[in-house]
Amino acid sequence: MKKYILYTLSLFAATCIVSCDSDDDVANEELVVTPHKVTVGFTNTDTQDVVLEDGGVASVEIVLSEALPFDGELVFEATSSDGSIETIAADDSVITEVSIPQSVTVPAGTTTVTADFSFVNDNIDDFSEVYTLKIKDFVTQGSSIETYLVGENLTKEVNVVDELPRVVTVADGDVAFRLDFPLALDADFGLFYTDRVIDNDLLVGSGVTFANPEEFTWASSTDEGRFSLFVQEFNGAFPLDYTLTITFPDGSEEVYTRTITENGFVLLVDKVINSDGTITYTLAQTN
């Protein structure tokens, strides 16, 4: 058995020389074989899969650039953005948040396999957690003088959320935002261009004058893109309990009731203009 440890594997090239006999009395004629590279790694590593924490499954694809004439075993590991894939429950038991496949076989002659990573509820209201899946090793059942293995795209991120994004498709029109909160507090909120929030680029907001509830309207003329909703308590009086109601042109509503302990972005809103003129909004909580 020959074992390739992918994440420490460096590129190399070799020339293999094999002697052979010839019926033409040419002794020890040399046959030169130059091995070529075969890569192994995840597909779609530039996008995050989004799965539900409570029973969600991330089915990820692993590909070889060329089929091998022998079986191989993929070995995986996973890490979490919060520092651990385990949580201590209220009864002091340990919750393992992700089930990692012990190994996945890549049969001889095959270039594509799928590995399933399943998730369980850790009972923490953290809205989302990013897991990094990694191909730790690839153990082959043989070797070849014609190929050498190189690991590429060995990690893939999966965004595990407490609640799946809500998707709304409606006719074009204004969208109304309303924020209800306790009378004793002074809350404000607004919608920012996500890729320009560092420049404090506010698209539309409720303003800094006191009102309860706070409201604003997102005009239909806005270009498509990704936007972030920011909620703040003007005087820093936390916790802030609020109810956010978003009303779409057809009268349908999406309602979020949450508590925050600091000012911050609470919702990502993706707006896509469809070919038929309708608009699709994808709403994902971030805090």
User: What is the overall silhouette?
Assistant: elongated
Uncertain stretches: 1-22
Q: Can you tell me the CATH architecture of the largest domain?
A: Sandwich
**How many distinct folded domains?**
2
Structure description:
With 287 residues, the protein is mainly beta. The chain has two domains: 2-161, Immunoglobulin-like, CATH 2.60.40.2030; 166-285, Jelly Rolls, CATH 2.60.120. Helices cover 0% and strands 54% of the residues. The chain has no helices and 25 strands. Strands 1, 5, 7, 11, 13 and 15 form a six-stranded mixed beta sheet that branches. A six-stranded antiparallel beta sheet has the order 16-25-24-21-18-19, with no helix packed on it. A hairpin with a 5-residue loop joins strand 24 (264-273) and strand 25. Mean pLDDT is 85; it is low at 1-22.
Topology of this protein?
Elements: E1 2-4, E2 16-20, E3 29-33, E4 36-42, E5 49-52, E6 57-64, E7 72-80, E8 86-88, E9 94-96, E10 98-99, E11 104-106, E12 112-119, E13 128-140, E14 147-151, E15 155-161, E16 166-170, E17 175-180, E18 187-193, E19 202-205, E20 214-218, E21 225-233, E22 240-247, E23 253-260, E24 264-273, E25 279-285
Parallel strand pairs: 4-14, 5-15
Antiparallel strand pairs: 1-13, 2-3, 4-6, 6-12, 7-11, 7-13, 8-9, 10-12, 13-15, 16-25, 17-20, 17-22, 18-19, 18-21, 21-24, 22-23, 24-25
